[in-house]
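Side project, low priority. Logging it here so it doesn't get lost.
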Amino acid sequence: MNHLVPEQMFSTETEKAQGISAVKAIAIASQQGQKIWTIDKTNVDLALSKMSLGASAESDIRNAVHAGQIATAHDSRINFNGWVGEGYILMDPNAGAGGYMISGGGNGSKTDVPDMLDQIMTDVSTIIDLLIIGLEKSKDIAIKTFKFILEAFSKALSFMSTALSVFTTLSDYISACPIEAIALLAPAFLFLIALSFLLITFLLSGFIAIIIGLLNGLLLSYFADKTVSACKGELIDLFKV
């Protein structure tokens, strides 16, 4: 089944990713007590009048049936881990070919992976923190600079993890109450966009400043050595005279 591939790819030992496919959506709807329709030209109007799917899905089913295909679909939309939609199968009885669809055209599956991404960012942040601790006592300027970059990256990861958690919560809310959510959360989205822009600008500015500082230090060190060598040569020539 389509949902099994992303589930196996993105699942970890501690966090299991959850995917959705046409077959799984129909199975979930059946478990919820929904009627599963087998639709052809003889009952397409009746079936669609009883069903409550998305407009694009109903249109897709109607067009496919009128083109000679047979559709299998459930009564109404389902909510699966924040994903709201439908799954249906369009089958050509002559060729035997079938299309497994989700949400009116998605051919494949949807996988819920925010928890997995959050776990990855947490693990990377932990590794960075351990590196920072290991570099704490070093007095070398290059290592100190590297430590500063790691600290900035760690803070950025922490911010991204928080933003991901907020995004997941908002996504669930928007799926449940789209109109109210848009009206209430539009200012919050604008604020988050502005904050993200400022953070990215700060990090890029700091990184560029560090690179320029390192290059400047290397150039000063190089030309200082050349100047000292030249002065020593002039003094030696003077004493020879």
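Brief comment: The chain has two domains: 4-111, 113-240.
Revisit when time allows.
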